[in-house]
Design goal:
globular, AhpD-like, mainly alpha
């Protein structure tokens, strides 16, 4: 399955999502590694099989193997961190903020790709998972690395469209069952 096949699998009411996926695949404010990694990390964060297959087929081979692994690693580690840090942020008891997480997250320090690329993919996943604390942390690191608001926004736009496509296909599958 490819990006075109994914768009074809979306129902007519999702025309805006189809158009956004096409536009974002041609987005020029991000270099290809940043852009393709955002698609791949977002697909893995959403976990919808058809979306994962389509976006993996479309983008994984266009990334260096270490970049594809790092995009998947961003989805994996943020899947853990977003839950933990969202809890820390939302819990009424403030003492959790003073406790060490005591969760392994070594890939953040050594992702195998440019640190800004990994941070961008982590931000996209954090947006999907709704962790404000992680969004703020990654956005701060991206700004320090010199990324513009437009580049950061592009990553979140990709995450948004991938998330929407995933939600639509899950909903359609539930109706068909």
């Amino acid at each position: 399955m490819s990006l075109d096949a994914l768009k074809d699998a979306l129902p007519d009411y999702a025309k805006d999502i189809k158009l956004n996926l096409s536009t974002l695949a041609r987005e020029s404010v991000l270099d290809d590694q940043k852009k393709f990694g955002c698609f791949l990390a977002s697909a893995h964060a959403c976990g919808e099989p058809a979306v994962m297959r389509a976006l993996t087929a479309e983008f994984e081979d266009r990334l260096a193997p270490e970049a594809a692994q790092a995009a998947k690693a961003a989805a994996a580690v943020m899947g853990m961190n977003n839950v933990y840090y969202r809890f820390v942020h939302l819990a009424a008891a403030k003492d959790y903020k003073t406790l060490p997480a005591r969760l392994r997250m070594n890939v953040i320090a050594s992702p195998g790709v440019d640190k800004a690329d990994f941070e961008l993919w982590s931000l996209a996943v954090s947006a999907i998972n709704g962790c404000g604390m992680c969004i703020d942390a990654h956005e701060h690191e991206l700004r320090k690395a010199g990324l513009s608001a437009e580049q950061i926004q592009a990553a979140v736009r990709i995450a948004s469209a991938v998330n929407a496509a995933s939600a639509i296909l899950r909903a359609e599958a539930a109706l068909a069952a």
